[in-house]
Structure of DUF4087 domain-containing protein:
Amino acid sequence: MKSFRFQQFAAYVALVSAALYLPQSAFAAQTRCGWIENDMPSSLTLQDRDGTWTIASIGRDADGFADHMPDTNKGDSCGCLSVETDKASMLVTKVLGGKLKPVSACQRDKSLKQ
């Protein structure tokens, strides 16, 4: 009986330890700010300090795109998006919300490519 309880306790400790030390989920919401580029039909990207993220392309839109993506015109806009991403493929997998900012905000941000 003591051996079984020890095994249960050890399993519990291992589970709690793993939960504490695992990296944050790749699907955690992030706020990413930068240039929202709408240069081609059916193509939308966000260029921030980490690189260029694909939001929409021919045949693929991020989840929540239609409901939560702020309206942009053709060309470049500046804004912040609340998104979930796949860093390995530089894809925005889900758009949770967003807000456009004045273009001057992106122009002043030294971490963004012009």
About this structure: The chain is about 25% helix and 45% strand.
